[in-house]
Predict the 3D structure of the following.
Amino acid sequence: MKKYIWTFSALCMGLLLGSCNKDPEYFSLETYPDEMHIKSSVEEIVLNKGIADQAAVTFTWDAASSPLSATDEVTYKMCLYPSTQKDSKSDYIDLGTNLTYSITHDELNTMLSKWTLPGQALKVTAQLLSVVHNEQHYVKPEVSTVEFTVTGYEKYPPYIYMHMTTDGGQKVSQRLEQRQLGTGIYEATLDMSPCNFHFATTIDADYPAYGMADGGDAEQMEYFTDGTIRDFRFDGIGKRTVIVDTNTGFNDCRVLDIVQLPTPGQIWICGNGCSVGWNTNTTNGRLEMVGTAREPYYYAWTGDFIAGGELKIGVGGGWGDPFFFAPEMNADPLTDHRLSTFRYQDNGGDVKWVPSVSGRYTFTLCLLATDMWTKFEPAN
């Protein structure tokens, strides 16, 4: 009996070992040959910021077909990646049924800036996929690739420089900075008088430069790499904030009259009409700049307001410093949106806002001197 048991066990073990030596079988999708044969219009290109909106590379390909039915629609999508770093693919671009696609200097440079430094040549692969639309079956996409070499440019230098020539013939330069690096929006606040001006990307060279666009309005810019730079014109006098947006879609220069706070960024709310109470310049009462880098003149405070209480907004350190006051005594911020620049209490009286509602609201101030106003709305 023991011999029988041992023989049976050995047989089972042999069957088990035999099954372990057999390779498992997995389901695999059928792969179809490349019918598309994608081509690039260039083998090598140096991108040019001066023609950022023009096509840098055009891809063309042959139509793919469905292996299931001639009536199936076939669409395409494409991504790009460094040829040696397939894990660094761009987002796929849906191309519909088109058999061609062009990418601009700006679009390609934006991708390139994530992969290598400006001025360095990089081999890039464009990968095209065909997508078969069949209601019953999934078809593995065909893949077609093409390789080309690209050299990019510095899209957003850390600074740009405003070169001014006053009506008296004096030449003055002013550096503009980005509030946040990588935005391409530059800003400086300075005392200005009537002058002509343009912008250079380096302090010690005339080019590349931004001047006024030919045939555009007084704010639109053009990128110059040579030739005569068309100057902008300013005819006012006083402190102004110059904001230059070099991004495609804006590409403009604005000279703005923004209310200048005594201490930049220091603006706070107080009063028994809000949860801050009669406490000056507190952290929890501080208004924050809520505009984009293009709009650094919006400030707001979100918190709990109390109907019937009083409010005012300070810009100094305490009671003896200037405040933004209400336009008239007991003005309701919910309905009265007038705003005048800050002043001392003795120059017009201690005029406060009195909200008619309680709850969590956002009180916003627009400090653009030519268009000052407030907004009071429920907080999200």
Observations:
- Residues 1-12, 14-19 have pLDDT under 50 and may be disordered.
